[in-house]
Amino acid sequence: MEILTYAGIAVLGALLIYMFIVYNSLVNTSNRVEETFVRMDIYLKQRWNLIPSIIEDVKGYEGYDEIALESAVDFKNVAYDQMSEADKITVNAKIDAALPLIMKLADSYLNIESYESFLSISKQLELIEVEISKLRDQYNKAVKAMNKKVTTIPSSIVANLFDYKELKELD
Asked: pTM for the full model?
């Protein structure tokens, strides 16, 4: 009887140790997702701050109304820092969709006076977009790692106990 008691305690101890290991792995992966988003968010904010200048450069040109980025995203009345992470992701998806159209329009119709300003902003935006792309890839890799842990047994059991959920990748 004594051997069964010790065996039971050993199994229970091994399960607790395993649970701590899996929990720490979930925490570390979750932190990696969050850290990557924070790094990417710096560039998303820089892009957010450049968009009004681009809009000003292309306002009044033929086709501008079709893009309607300004109406999709209220740059003047929404403080980027006050948005939730989910709102930032949604808004930036809208920007990702509309920005190529604005850049094409600006490239086609800008006059000489506006062109210098646009060119400067365009170069800044290009560098920012490269960084966003790199960090988006890192973020998606971290999210995939987290989702794998959250959805596969046995780590999914620990994830459910501590309310870890699947995360959404960025497009």
From this structure: 0.80
